[in-house]
Amino acid sequence: MSATSARPSHAAQPSGGAFILKKALISALVALVLFSLMIGVRTEAGPQGGLIYWTRFGDLAAMVATVFGGSIVVELLRQWWGPVDKDSIVPKPVQSAISFAGRWLAPALLVFTFLVPVIFYDQRYILDLSILVLTYVMLGWGLNVVVGLAGLLDLGYVAFYAVGAYSYALLATNFGLSFWVCLPLAGILAAFWGVLLGFPVLRLRGDYLAIVTLAFGEIIRLVIINWQSLTGGPNGVSGIPRPTMFGIPLTPGDDGLAAKLGIEFSPTHRLVFLFYLILAMALLTNWVTIRLRRLPIGRAWEALREDEVACRALGINTTTTKLTAFATGAMFGGLAGAFFATRQGFISPESFTFQESALVLAIVVLGGMGSQLGVALAALAMIGGFELFRGLDQYRMLVFGIAMVLLMIWRPRGLIGHRAPTVFLERNQAISSDLVKEGHG
Amino acid sequence: MDYFAQQLINGLVLGSIYGLIAIGYTMVYGIVGMINFAHGDIFMIGGFIALISFLVLVSLGLTAIPLILLIVLLVSMAITALYGWTIERIAYRPLRHSFRLAPMLSAIGMSFVLTNFSQVSQGARVKPVPPIITGGYTLHEGAQGFAVQLSNVQIMVVLATIVVLALFTWLVSRTRLGRDMRACEQDQTMAALLGVDVDRTISMTFVIGAALAAVAGMMYLLYYGLVDFFMGFVAGIKAFTAAVLGGIGSLPGAMLGGLAIGLIETFWSAYFSVEYKDVAAFSILIVVLIFMPTGLLGRPEVEKV
């Protein structure tokens, strides 16, 4: 690659074989020091309790060689591709292509989703996976209300998921209430907790808000772990009843749905039912969000995200605006939690760690802050991609972390960095998300 | 009273460790304006490198404990500092001018990478070490056989914290690098115009923060006698809480917040319940922030219109 092919603004960047080699050598040297002790030496508690260690210089050499080779490949790719395009204003053809794709991709995806149980009826694994993906789509859309629309950075979203799950689990196991009674209750309880969290953070901004929500999430998890008499502590709650189809259980018994319809019982029926249930709940979340965005409250959220001071100057009540955003987002989290509890039949605090919050936040940001389609695609990419590495077992989270870093570097503005405006003058134009502020609330 | 004094000592020692980690958060926040979520894991890596280098040195036949500890300290500071540098180069520098949530998420991703890297490379089990520094003093022989103890490890942790803090304060207030760091904190563009190498200064901030975390990691290893791959998350959140409690961006605030969190945790465990010590620490954080929205020593935010 010659320097002439580089763009003018980056023409100063050196290139050529010697440069690449030098860079790769430095990377390899850094890798050698970094990994020298962590990979080169393996420690383990010995039989007498003391620590023993053995060396793994072969692995170390392999890692350093990988870094050396990888560095050359990355550098070559970078020079071949040229610098990453930083243009913030979207060019016209791209804009129209995106709006075209946006118009057709979403309905096509929706139709396909509706048909998933038909196409993959026999593949239990795919049904399970799509239920999981849809759960995260719903969580992403719920958090999108708080982060994407209102610009309030919430690092403890999983707390509401936990509240919903435990509400349903405890109400159902202790009082024998049915899923359909508990579902709204779980949503209301989670919304209540959202308001409760909202009050102390009303005066906080940016990162102070982030740490308080994070702390709140941890508090809920720690209370669940330690309040053994109510929640069962680390053992969790088991024996959570399965959902019924409006009172008709999906069991092989005489009063089950299969017997009533006169067809042969199959456990897949329940999966298909769960699939359509979560699909309906996710679509409800989406529909409510889209409707709310057109209402004064939704516009107040977006105004709050852009500029809180201007918002107050315009006479928008920031207190109610923030509280409704937290409550709405939390409610959807709670509903998703109730679904999670009924799907699993067993919940424990392990399902509600910070890692989950980070995953949902990653889905929202990767989806492109406020883009509903983007969030759905990001959930598919993240959860589906995560599943691809199931065989790798202990390397899975490592790969996931690397993927998260790379995705952020590759698309800091998310997969779909454009969205349709809620209101527009004369002509509907895609808004680049570069123009959208975030998380200053 | 004796019991109280003992808890005070324990709390101050724990608080020093938190304070050392919290300074790393606060420094990075002050200059780059981002929460370095991977910082807790850098602390964990520091602990691991201290452990491994200690094992290797002992098996090489070194017997002088002070010499070993000095070498371990230098090695773990150097290697961990390189971790800080590399992480900044790979995950944060490309996102320097990006919107605010992107570097935060890449930091969270980096934290997952470090946690799982050490799990994969060193195993998931807790690594215990026998006490390296033993002995101590009995400060006060109380009634019912309860004595206020001050162990040598505790003295060492506090002394190391004081020395490191003194060095660090000197670095920030008296050296060229410290001046550059303060300039970048005020205004990066202006600093760059006046000839400050902003990239280098930010790299050095990460390097110094990581080195401080390595000191904390080593102190943790000496004090508790164990490391494991997950300790970075818990300690990181506590130290981050400490930094925010003290007012993120303020260096004395970080130390003050660290001591406060250490004391709250220790006293809560001693007088109430151990299980809810973290809940207590987080609840007090929330309460403090309600009344002082920018922390104890934080500067009030100016609203630009």
From TrEMBL, chain B:
**Is Transmembrane helix tagged as a keyword?**
yes
Bilayer disposition of the protein: Multi-pass membrane protein
User: Where would you find this protein in the cell?
Assistant: Cell membrane
Q: Where are the transmembrane segments?
A: 12-35, 42-62, 68-87, 99-118, 153-172, 202-223, 280-298
Q: Name one GO biological process term.
A: L-isoleucine import across plasma membrane
Q: Pfam families recorded for this chain?
A: BPD_transp_2 (PF02653)
Keywords of this protein's UniProt record, alphabetized? Amino-acid transport, Cell inner membrane, Cell membrane, Membrane, Transmembrane, Transmembrane helix, Transport
An example GO CC term for this entry is:
plasma membrane
According to UniProt, the name of this protein is: Branched-chain amino acid ABC transporter permease LivH
